[in-house]
Amino acid sequence: FCALMQSLTTFAALLLASVLFVPLFKRAGLGTVLGYLAVGMLIGPSGVKLVRDPDNLLHTAELGVIMLLFVIGLELKPSRLWALRRPVFGLGALQLFGVAAALAGAGRYLGLSVSAAVVVGIILALSSTAFVLPTLAERRELSTRHGREAFAILLFQDLSVIPLLALIPLFGTGKPTALTHPGVGLGLLVVVAFVGRPLLDALFRHVARVNSREMFTAAALVTVLGLALLMQAGGLSMSLGAFVAGVLLADSEFRHELEASIAPFQGLLLGLFFMAVGMSTNLRLLVDQPLQILGLTFGLIFIK
């Protein structure tokens, strides 16, 4: 009972802090993402220590990112996605490998070995879908040219997860596993693309006959989480699995109802995700090594 009360108190404190502080960042033009991060820093281990172990909250709140990708997928019909193939594989590849090469060179200059510099370059060349897409959506810039190009780059990065996971162990002592073999994830992606749509249509038609709002919401959550877990088992990211689920249902007659069912969960969990990231920030490191951290941060931003 005490553990339950502590959990409820923490959750209530998170909601209260977000309601009080996030609107201030929104009005200041800084966006809600920075607001949630600031709230996390304030109540996390580096702040007032209201939450001492943010890792458990972070794992749960990552569901918000997954649902965000599902909702975005619902807005992209397969024909529109096919039209993005050139920016995805052209601009996306140029950004990822160009930035990775530049960062690897910087790593060598700072004294890293060749293998370490390559790995660090690849990792730092990637961007956070969870940060970029909510910011673009909040500013209503997803439909602009730079918004579409940013989305194409992020999609290419998600698709690159499989070969990158297979290649990175080659730079160290580890050996690629079955789940990091490119053929596993790509084959699974092709199978889902071909058989997923009729199966999902049959599922939601069956649920629609029950005429229950709760059952429809449950079916939507099962679809998102099921495909996300399936993709993860094949070596892909869970976010990509949720995005594929959304694209498969983009032409469905249930698209608007699906979006309405998922949106409340997505918004709440995404806010918790950003707060958990803020809680994980080590502010002590910034105090101890401010010039080094600021220099590396601005250098990374300049190169990217």
Features:
single chain; 304 residues; mainly alpha
Report on the structure:
This protein has helices at 2-27, 32-43, 54-74, 78-83, 85-109, 114-125, 129-138, 145-159, 161-167, 182-210, 213-233, 238-248, 255-279, 283-288, 290-303. The chain is mostly helical. 32% of the residues are buried. The radius of gyration is 21 Å and the shape is globular. It is built from 15 helices and no strands.
Topology:
Layout: H1 2-27, H2 32-43, H3 54-74, H4 78-83, H5 85-109, H6 114-125, H7 129-138, H8 145-159, H9 161-167, H10 182-210, H11 213-233, H12 238-248, H13 255-279, H14 283-288, H15 290-303
Q: Give the mean pLDDT.
A: 77
Spans of at least 5 consecutive residues whose pLDDT stays below 50 are: 173-180
Shape: globular
| Structural class by sheet pairing and helices | mainly alpha
**Main β-sheet, in a few words?**
none
Strand content: under 5%
Number of strands: 0
Q: Using only CA atoms, what is the Rg?
A: 21 Å
Along the chain, the helix and strand elements come as HHHHHHHHHHHHHHH
What is the helical fraction, as a range of percent?
Answer: over 70%
Number of H- or I-type helical stretches: 15
The rounded distance between the terminal residues' Cα atoms is: 49 Å
